[in-house]
Design goal:
Structural class: alpha+beta
Bound molecules: alpha-D-galactopyranose
Mean pLDDT: 95
Shape: globular
Radius of gyration: 26 Å
Distance between the termini: 81 Å
Strand content: 25-35%
Helix content: 10-25%
Oligomer: single chain
Largest sheet: 9 strands, antiparallel
């Protein structure tokens, strides 16, 4: 447009608005940021411009944010968005500058390098959430006998993110066998987000080029005696901006079954742009019904970050496990914040229905060996699903030893399925217990502090009397027989995990 005579712009605007919004200001309209990789969506700016100022929203996959702190200077528009709530709000700043018929966008996220991309003009509805589909009445999806103990396996997200592909999944399946993980009970090889392509004319979901043939991949994984898991969202887009199952629940469940899928993680993501939190139950029930009707045994993993007390209804909608928190990261703060916040959820766990404090980070490099032993011990005490999140092809001996410790896995997988609880805490000390089958107990003595600590567990705290024998599950030895309780020194950020009988 630059350099056109004013009169011509005026005429164009009069006849061509809204396609050519010159008369409305150069920033007005919907600006579409191109998606990354095979994703379907990344971001849209919905902007209005009048009397010298700009208002509008940034539309993301899972949310929309109003723009604030707007300024126009030297032909450049700047604004910010603020996500989250104080004190954890995240501010992103944007700079938009017209470039031919496109818009050069620089966005600056906290802690990341600025990134510049070309946004193109989209339609008047670009980025809008789809029309609402009314939800079915609630009923109880009957249990189907799966997940009698917490699911064990591997998931691609924590380590591979969008880099997961067919060859990687095959190599992970191979490594699961070769490393002894399979022999230790790890079974599910789960593909997380970013496998999705679009849909064909009949609405059937396609894989993208990273996964040329999902059925063949499932056959391969099954040939190793393992099971294959996949991921989708009840929204129109997954969290990474790929095709979701919105309005296609039944055909997707059938497609997954046809491919030979054994496990579905179903992630709320963009459903948040159509439904309210208190409608989640009906949304998740829809896929629960669809999976049951698919004719295949598929473990159903709910992922909606523990909102709306999911533990109270997750099982009713057909779920075998449900995330209880936001995403874990590979660091001590994140892992302990999540793990130690789970006390009180024990009544909701049991055979066929489990609380899921998110996947393991063991072996991803952000924590020490002691910290990863704490992670593994805490998850076992919580009867949590054990989904390794590391690169199984290149595990250290220490990582493999932590993930495959048979005594710790036996706690996690105990038949009774009774989730552990906090016995006591004080300062940086936590003592947790878990009742096991045969009247045994697991006791975990955690030292969250930065210096070694003496920690004691008393039998009377468990309602026990008399002498009991203690087996130390990380030192792999019988510690002896003790009258009153057991006391031991625990390293910083470490744990002493014992079985008492
Ligand atoms: C959400 C989930 C994660 C992962 C990503 C994938 O953040 O909580 O576990 O599945 O989406 O986009």
């Amino acid at each position: 447009m630059k350099g056109w005579p004013i009169a011509v712009i005026g005429v164009a605007a009069a006849f061509a608005w809204p396609q050519n919004p010159a008369g409305q200001g150069m920033f007005a309209g919907r600006w579409v940021v191109p998606p990354e990789g095979d994703a379907a969506f990344r971001q849209v700016y919905a902007l209005e411009q009048s009397s010298g100022t700009v208002t509008g929203r940034v539309i993301n996959t899972t949310s929309e944010q109003p723009i604030v702190d707007v300024a126009i200077a030297d032909g450049t528009l700047t604004f910010a968005t603020v996500a989250g709530r104080p004190p954890n709000e995240r501010r992103t700043e944007y700079r938009l500058r017209p470039s031919g018929s496109s818009m050069a966008v620089t966005f600056m996220r906290p802690g990341r390098n600025p990134e510049t991309l070309m946004a193109t003009r989209g339609s008047a509805t670009a980025g809008d959430a789809p029309a609402r589909i009314e939800l079915p009445a609630l009923h109880r999806v009957p249990a189907n006998g799966l997940a009698k103990t917490p699911p064990m396996g591997w998931n691609s997200w924590n380590y591979f993110r969008a880099r997961v592909d067919d060859a990687t999944v095959r190599a992970i399946a191979d490594a699961m066998v070769a490393s002894g993980m399979k022999a230790s009970g790890y079974t599910y090889v789960n593909i997380d987000d970013t496998w999705e392509g679009g849909r064909d004319a009949s609405g059937r979901i396609q894989t993208n080029r990273k996964f040329p043939n999902m059925k063949a991949l499932a056959d391969y994984v099954h040939s190793k005696g393992l099971k294959l898991g996949i991921y989708s969202s009840p929204g129109h887009l997954t969290c990474a901006g790929y095709e979701g199952s919105y309005g296609h629940e039944e055909i997707d469940a059938k497609t997954f079954a046809g491919w030979g899928i054994d496990y579905l993680k179903y992630d709320w993501c963009s459903a948040a742009r159509v439904y309210k939190d208190d409608e989640m139950q009906a949304v998740y029930q829809k896929m629960g019904d669809a999976l049951r009707a698919s004719g295949r045994d598929i473990v159903y993993s709910l992922c909606q970050y523990g909102r709306n007390d999911v533990w109270k209804w997750g099982s009713d909608v057909g779920g075998h496990l449900w995330r209880t928190t936001g995403d874990i990261s590979d660091n001590w703060e994140s892992m302990t914040r999540i793990g130690f916040s789970q006390d009180g959820l024990a009544p909701y766990a049991g055979p066929g229905h489990w609380n899921d404090p998110d996947m393991l980070e063991i072996g991803n490099g952000g924590m020490t060996g002691a910290e990863y032993r704490t992670h593994m011990s805490l998850w076992a005490m919580l009867a949590a699903p054990l989904l390794a999140g590391n690169d199984l092809r290149a595990m250290s001996t220490e990582t493999a030893a932590i993930l495959t410790n048979p005594d710790v896995i036996a706690i996690d997988q105990d038949q009774v399925g009774r989730q552990g609880r906090r016995l006591r805490s004080g300062g940086t000390i936590e003592v947790w217990s878990r009742l096991l089958s045969g009247g045994k107990y697991a006791i975990a003595m955690f030292n969250r502090g930065d210096t070694p600590a003496m920690i004691e567990a008393r039998w009377s705290d468990l309602g026990l009397s008399g002498a009991h024998t203690v087996h130390d599950l990380w030192r792999h030895r019988d510690a002896g027989r003790f009258e009153i309780g057991y006391q031991t020194q625990v390293e910083p950020h470490g744990v002493s995990l014992i079985r008492v009988q």
